[in-house]
Amino acid sequence: MAVRLPRGFRAGATRAGIKPSGKPDLALLVSGLPASWAYVATQNRAAAPSIHRGRALYAQGGALRAVVVNAGNANCATGERGFLDDRRMAEVAALRLGVPVEEVLTASTGVIGVPLPVEKVETGLPQIELTPYADAFAEAILTTDLVPKVAEAEVEGARIVGIAKGSGMIHPNMATMLAFVVTDAALPQEALREAWRGIVDRTFNQVTVDGDTSTNDLALVMANGAYGAVPLEAFFPALEAVARELARKIARDGEGATKLMTVRVVGAGTEEEARRAARTIAGSALWKSALYGNDPNWGRILAALGNSGARFDPLRVRIQVQGIPLYAGGALPFDRERASQAMRAEEVEVWVDLGEGPWEGVAWGCDLTEGYVRINALYTT
Amino acid sequence: MAVRLPRGFRAGATRAGIKPSGKPDLALLVSGLPASWAYVATQNRAAAPSIHRGRALYAQGGALRAVVVNAGNANCATGERGFLDDRRMAEVAALRLGVPVEEVLTASTGVIGVPLPVEKVETGLPQIELTPYADAFAEAILTTDLVPKVAEAEVEGARIVGIAKGSGMIHPNMATMLAFVVTDAALPQEALREAWRGIVDRTFNQVTVDGDTSTNDLALVMANGAYGAVPLEAFFPALEAVARELARKIARDGEGATKLMTVRVVGAGTEEEARRAARTIAGSALWKSALYGNDPNWGRILAALGNSGARFDPLRVRIQVQGIPLYAGGALPFDRERASQAMRAEEVEVWVDLGEGPWEGVAWGCDLTEGYVRINALYTT
């Protein structure tokens, strides 16, 4: 695809031998200038050493120059040694690039509980060829994702490029979502951090594949200023659009998924309730199964809504699937065959009006398929 | 099986024609004496009229004489008419039994959004033959449960019998858990209500099949005093044992399940954290898939734990599956083939020590199978 990175960024990857498949698995993303950055990481209490280290760097408030990522080993639940190995990964990258180790972030995804073969990182890192393109990096950070995920935008001359991996399984462990967004716009770190928190809440945090949060998730944005300043009111919406596109791509590539589901909740009493309601519907195993079977089973949407904690009166709620009204305070007559046919699509939109207030929220998910079960049960051990 | 009800209780069922299959679908459970009672119902905001009516009766604090249950139609999301139909169902039962309508509880399970054919209830109710046995009632309240669920206990001469239905699907809607426990012990209503709340929290509320809470769930206990008083300190543990046995049976009969999972969390900082941790592990789609595949994938248990909100230090956590230690602050060496073999069982126990405090909690669940997806996706519409 050849996606050019914003000015001043380079990236690359190599086959370090961490993935049993022998595919590229060690990747580096570098800014020629110190970059302001913002970062949101998993809330999982069993978080990996890379997450703990990232949080500490974030709290220090310094600039960032590089991210080194290994795919194949989460370096999680690896005891005290895991923390040393994670730091070593950062040191090797810092040495290669000639930058302070506190300006190098680490990220890992893959098997849990197996020590990181850090000597493979030491051998592999010097072999990485850095180029102005995102492609090799986007490919190397994948686990069992089916496709690389890249999104881009331009704002008055400044460029934004986002790269993500989604929910794929490496034996014997869990999916991890990683997102790296880079821009050559000049942005004050404080403004970037404040905006990023909200953007992540409205995009990556609204994706659900199976309700399991990984120990290694993170979403990063780096702004190196190589282009110069741009108006924040134009920049942040473009940044959010890039994050949203990555979020959609992650949901679409969920394990075993055959389709992308977008849930749009309007008329909520608060923004948080709108988002929570959308997430709960997108995450309902019963509705996700119905989606797979092309069954316009609005009762499951209503029941999921009832579990979300959002306030509503069932007599005022309205539900549409693919634009077809199914429920409005009570069952509506509809052509079941036509509705089922409309659900046989790559993308299915669920629209719910709570009839309570002015707030809206969107979430993304996918269907629950026999393929999901097979990937996570039968094709392991 | 012929399970005799406690003294003074009778029950029966008939084929009212509500289930498309023509199976028994209208059931009555009656106490000859006014009974003290306690009741916990779904938190779902889209709760059915029967739930709203039950809550109002509960708040009035009067005695209970009977429960009338229809299986086949949840009478939920049926608009204003649903409330009238629900009350009519209670009235017809009250007329037949010659008791005040405020002493008759209703319960419904089945399809959402379709008006209840209340005339079938009117025709069917007089045909119900009441007997001193639980069996016909236990059979009629099922939807796609595979087996009736009954449990019993005796406390110093008083008897306890519990009857439940679990998670089965009726096209096009969701599973519902209903539990009815009756005893001939004499119990003060206040003491019963206080104890029941805790018992339900430790038993029925610790069951998870797919994370979707129904609009029609309820768990009821009735005590008619026909036997006389028994010591509460002996009675409540026996009542809890009956509830626990029903909870286990519901989990084992989860949709598509091939095995029962019991998750026991010890060493938690609070009881609520212990229970939440156990529930989160039992509900993890990733771990449930691994369970199906007999994969001793403890990383998924640790990751689920990390999402539960319970406090712990990963370096102090211990995890066992079927009594085999897999993790103790780090990966333990274990025979993967032997552990997988041990998971090929009807019941699998997960044991987790958080290493934080003295509290324990148990949850029950089942594996996530291709059968679950098929039941809920492919075999509908």
Automatic annotation (TrEMBL), chains A, B:
The active site is at residue 176. InterPro entries: Arg_biosynth_ArgJ (IPR002813), ArgJ-like_dom_sf (IPR016117), ArgJ_beta_C (IPR042195). One of its GO terms (cellular component) is cytoplasm. Its EC number is 2.3.1.35, 2.3.1.1. It is found in: Cytoplasm. Gene3D superfamilies: ArgJ beta chain, C-terminal domain (3.10.20.340), L-amino peptidase D-ALA esterase/amidase (3.60.70.12). Keywords: Acyltransferase, Amino-acid biosynthesis, Arginine biosynthesis, Autocatalytic cleavage, Cytoplasm, Multifunctional enzyme, Transferase. Substrate binds at residues 143, 165, 176, 255, 376, 381. It catalyses: L-glutamate + acetyl-CoA = N-acetyl-L-glutamate + CoA + H(+); N(2)-acetyl-L-ornithine + L-glutamate = N-acetyl-L-glutamate + L-ornithine. Pathway: Amino-acid biosynthesis; L-arginine biosynthesis; N(2)-acetyl-L-ornithine from L-glutamate: step 1/4; Amino-acid biosynthesis; L-arginine biosynthesis; L-ornithine and N-acetyl-L-glutamate from L-glutamate and N(2)-acetyl-L-ornithine (cyclic): step 1/1. The record marks 109-110 as: Involved in the stabilization of negative charge on the oxyanion by the formation of the oxyanion hole. The record marks 175-176 as: Cleavage. It holds the Pfam family ArgJ. One of its GO terms (biological process) is L-arginine biosynthetic process. GO terms for molecular function: L-glutamate N-acetyltransferase activity; L-glutamate N-acetyltransferase activity, acting on acetyl-L-ornithine as donor. The keyword Transmembrane does not apply. HAMAP family: ArgJ. Heterotetramer of two alpha and two beta chains. Catalyzes two activities which are involved in the cyclic version of arginine biosynthesis: the synthesis of N-acetylglutamate from glutamate and acetyl-CoA as the acetyl donor, and of ornithine by transacetylation between N(2)-acetylornithine and glutamate. Belongs to the ArgJ family. This is Arginine biosynthesis bifunctional protein ArgJ. It comes from Thermus scotoductus. The lineage of its organism: Bacteria, Thermotogati, Deinococcota, Deinococci, Thermales. The gene is argJ.
